[in-house]
Amino acid sequence: MAFLSFVGRVLFASVFVLSAWQQ
Predict the structure, then answer these.
(1) What pLDDT, in 10s, does the model give residues 2-19?
(2) How far is residue 12's CA from residue 7's CA, in Å, rounded to a whole number?
(3) What is the per-residue pLDDT for 22?
(4) What pTM did the predictor assign?
(5) What InterPro entries does the record point to (predicted)?
(6) Which residues of 1-23 are buried (b: 16+ CB within 10 A; e: fewer)?
(7) Rounded to an integer, what distance in angstroms lies between the CA atom of residue 23 and that of residue 8?
(8) What is the DSSP string of 1-23?
(9) What angle do CA 18, 23, 12 make, to 5 degrees?
């Protein structure tokens, strides 16, 4: 479960970075 939480956090961070980078 810890690994799944880590993956979710990384995915959320990557989406945030992509949305901020495209502006």
Answers:
(1) 999 999 999 999 999 999
(2) 9
(3) 87
(4) 0.52
(5) HR_lesion
(6) eeeeeeeeeeeeeeeeeeeeeee
(7) 23
(8) -HHHHHHHHHHHHHHHHHHHH--
(9) 25
